[in-house]
């Protein structure tokens, strides 16, 4: 499949052509999935509309980074639809998203999964006319419909990397409290910076095989690793210093 990815950076335009908050399951607390699933069965089916805003923040104390177009989805089976920590990438398109900021392959795979209730792609910064990464100070926003029985997932590339992405844990986030009431506000502290394990990491913001500096997609050496919270010896900014994600019921 041919895909064209536009990265807009302040100095150049690179065109790559190629085909425990309530209800949230933290990565260190996956064993509570069965409990959460049982609790969810007691909640109502009715859906609520939420506005999701993903903002790239300027970092005054270190590395700033764009974040790339990504995918979101809802599901109610607690089934780790995007990845499972300690396991290899599913081969459904997460690699292209994490390495090159291309959500197309993953979105196409999600469209064929019956266990997914709804999904979409966010790709155009608010106020822009074309798809692009969000530079510091810019944001994506989109709306979703979700019920208290469903979990919200999304993933977006940390662009100054080889294959890192920001996302909730594999069980997702509930946008409702234990009473079925919608939550609102900042949910960034429920996210992690994940390493897809598909490409060898270089120093963030410096690597020749990272999207802003490589000559095309999928250029770096394969890692053949597993998906995990990044811990490669390099220094990364705290996620909440460079990214903010908010939810607002409509």
Short description:
The chain has 250 residues and is mostly beta strands. The chain has helices at residues 33-40, 94-100, 104-110, 239-242, and strands at residues 3-8, 13-18, 48-56, 70-75, 118-122, 139-146, 151-157, 164-168, 185-186, 191-195, 228-229, 243-249.
Distance between the termini: 37 Å
Strand order of the largest sheet: 5-4-7-8-10-11
Q: Count the helices. How many?
A: 4
Which structural category do the helix and sheet elements fall into? mainly beta
Overall 3D geometry? Answer: globular
Note the run of SSEs as H and E: EEHEEHHEEEEEEEHE
Low-confidence stretches: 1-37
Report on the architecture of this protein.
The structure is a single chain. The protein is mainly beta and 250 residues long. The chain has one domain (26-249): Immunoglobulin-like (Sandwich), CATH 2.60.40. 10% of the residues lie in helices and 27% in strands. The strands form 3 sheets. Strands 5-4-7-8-10-11 form a 6-stranded antiparallel sheet, covered by helices on one side. It has a 4-stranded antiparallel sheet with strand order 6-3-12-9.
């Amino acid at each position: 499949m041919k895909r064209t990815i536009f990265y807009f950076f302040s100095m150049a335009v690179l065109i790559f052509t190629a085909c425990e908050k309530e209800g949230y399951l933290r990565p260190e607390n996956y064993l509570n999935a069965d409990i959460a699933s049982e609790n969810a069965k007691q909640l109502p089916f009715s859906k609520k509309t939420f506005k999701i805003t993903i903002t790239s923040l300027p970092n005054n104390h270190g590395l700033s980074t764009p974040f790339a177009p990504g995918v979101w989805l809802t599901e109610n089976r607690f089934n780790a639809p995007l990845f499972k920590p300690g396991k290899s990438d599913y081969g459904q398109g997460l690699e292209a998203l994490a390495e090159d900021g291309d959500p197309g392959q993953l979105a196409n795979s999600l469209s064929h999964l019956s266990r997914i209730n709804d999904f979409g792609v966010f790709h155009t910064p608010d106020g822009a006319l074309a798809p692009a990464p969000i530079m510091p100070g810019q944001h994506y926003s989109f709306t979703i419909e979700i019920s208290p029985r469903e979990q919200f997932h999304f993933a977006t590339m940390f662009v100054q990397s080889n294959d890192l992405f920001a996302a909730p844990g594999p069980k997702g986030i509930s946008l409702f409290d234990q009473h079925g009431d919608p939550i609102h506000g900042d949910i960034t502290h429920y996210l992690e910076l994940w390493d897809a394990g598909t490409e060898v990491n270089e120093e963030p913001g410096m690597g020749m095989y990272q999207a802003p500096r490589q000559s095309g997609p999928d250029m770096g050496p394969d890692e053949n690793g597993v998906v995990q919270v990044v811990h490669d010896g390099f220094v990364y900014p705290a996620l909440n210093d460079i990214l903010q994600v908010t939810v607002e019921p409509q």
